[in-house]
Structures are given as C-alpha cells and as structure tokens.
Specification:
The chain is mostly helical. It has one domain. It has three helices and two strands, in the order ββααα. Strands 1-2 form a two-stranded antiparallel sheet.
C-alpha cells in the first residue's frame, strides 16, 4: 500500500501540496493490481481524529492535503 508520492521521474514532489501528490499517486497506480493507495479519512477533523484513535492510527496519519511535507517546507525555507 502507498500513501504518498515524493518523487516522480527524478522530480522532487515534496514541495507540492499533498493533494497534488496524492492525485499523481492515484494516476500512477490506477492500472496496477498489487499497489493500491491507502484510504482517506473523512474531511471533518474531529470525526477523522475519532476514527484515528479508534483504529490506533496515531503514528500513520497524513498531513494537510494543501501543504507540502514539513521536511520539504523547512528545506525550501532555508534556501
């Protein structure tokens, strides 16, 4: 299972928002049978967090889909 796409054909995608990376990921694996994207939580933050807690997903929850990864954001800020 895959949940994010950080690089594609040599291009660093980390500075792009998760939403864009996720769309690229879903297109990349759309015709593959052995690779599937992880499922998404509901949009409502409190409901999503309840689901996270109920399933013990605390360490695996993704970020805001409209933001780059934190490491990429720090790297870009230091340039």
């Amino acid at each position: 299972m895959v949940f994010d796409l950080l690089e594609l054909e040599g291009e660093d995608l980390r500075p792009r928002p998760l939403l864009e990376r996720r769309q690229a990921l879903e297109q990349l694996v759309a015709d593959r049978q052995l690779i599937i994207p992880t499922r998404r939580l509901v949009a409502n933050g409190l409901e999503a967090w309840d689901e996270v807690l109920g399933c013990n997903y605390e360490g695996t929850v993704a970020k805001d889909p409209n933001q780059p990864t934190r490491r990429a954001a720090r790297s870009l800020g230091s340039r």
